[in-house]
């Protein structure tokens, strides 16, 4: 796996001595204000969500009393708790299916075990390059024909197998030595056993990247959940929030920002915790 | 040595075959066919073949052209800024310094948050009596009504996009910067080259492939802008923020003209391919890397 490996070897180079604080301070002096101003919208979001009297004003939010009233209102009102549960359920299903299928398909593809490897690879790269929105009408039409609309299946099945995930695994397997697998085959292990007991454990790092990417993408997904689902009880968080913001809560900024903060919290936690994995996945994408 | 099992291989591989057929080729072929009919879910059984009517209609429809114009404005008006900002940020956070990760993570942060959330936040900031206008008022500057004003609505969404997207492309640029061999810089410095000289004669030329990638990916993405418009303006005021994908959405899901919408989707698809191809030719040629 090119990107992850180059990063690892780069890390193995004799590390330069840690930079002095004096030089770093200069950079902090001009980058610090820049970063702070770029993060201001998030500060506004958080402050307004914690203030019950701000009316959307930053000044009033940070000077007035803070509290969790908006969050109580959020989870008490409407079906927001349900949206949250739907998002979690769909994301969990998509992550699990994505990891399993990417592992299997990516492995077979890398080891050229099925005829027409070039045809399949081309299909995967084309799917990967093509923006999904271009397929919005086509996908909607066939989902309607297959009677899959307005169900959990509509939110999960089209996203269960992902070209980018497969691509990541394929690149990774290309970097694994094949000798282990051949040795096991000589010892009489079946292909299935080789995949389960030897290849799968070796894939753990790339499967972690796949899981994180799948989670972030799916949790934030908006367009397809919007058009595939009609029933309120099936709505995911981004769709529910967007629609609430256009109906009864259109200028209830405390409510909307509590919802926005709550919707961002899971991805922020995952992002901060796995920041290295995410960057490496991104870099692998950049080298496709 | 025993040869491997075809059956196992196909079993492991089957998820992609099914997905590619069911959610890739089938929709593609079906909607291509639908784009030549007056198909809608209501008349699914009685859809009539209408030839190229849908395409002709799209090409004659002022609403389609205006959505294309808005999208073009969005692409042309954001990409130079996003690219420059992303490159600048990448150059700023590439060298080793203490706390570098805080900046890398911080600038990237908007990229992991849902576009719906970002759009809601900016809708609040852009409100006529919102915090942005409060700040502008305090500074004695004019306070437009941003998303409610036909002249400022699209630029306001574009400004948010530059803010939201630059961290993502910063990371891509960082990958390109890391790939440039360090001894080039060391050699240049021994020859007495300045920081600016290194940037012009080493960094930028060697960064061309990354630049191309960033331009293509960002163009393709920008042609698909939808959630921002849905949340912030619903295409208004006066359709001034109706992008192609939003237009597509309205035609398909408000007016249920799915045959027509399929045709528009194919036009967008062709446009996307053409632009990506043109960009790769353009940047490829000037860099001598070859497209």
Task: Tell me what the structure shows.
The complex is a heterodimer of chains A (288) and B (291). Chain A is mainly α and 288 residues long. Chain A has helices spanning 2-12, 21-50, 58-63, 69-76, 80-110, 117-129, 136-145, 152-156, 163-174, 179-186, 191-202, 204-220, 223-228, 237-244, 253-273, 275-286. Chain A is 73% helix and 0% strand. In chain A, helix 4 (69-76) packs across helix 15 (253-273) and helix 5 runs parallel beside helix 9. The longest helix of chain A has 31 residues, at 80-110. In chain B, helix 2 (53-60) packs across helix 13, helix 7 packs antiparallel against helix 10 (208-222) and helix 10 packs antiparallel against helix 13 (258-287). The two termini of chain B are 43 Å apart. Chain B has 13 helices and no strands. With 291 residues, chain B is mainly alpha-helical. The longest helix of chain B is centred in the N-terminal third of the chain and has 32 residues, at 62-93. The chains are: A mainly alpha (288), B mainly alpha (291). At the A-B interface, helix 1, helix 2, helix 5, helix 6 and helix 7 of A face helix 1, helix 4, helix 5, helix 7 and helix 10 of B.
Short recap of the structure:
The complex is a heterodimer of chains A (288) and B (291). Chain A is an all-alpha fold and 288 residues long. In chain A, 73% of the residues lie in helices and 0% in strands.
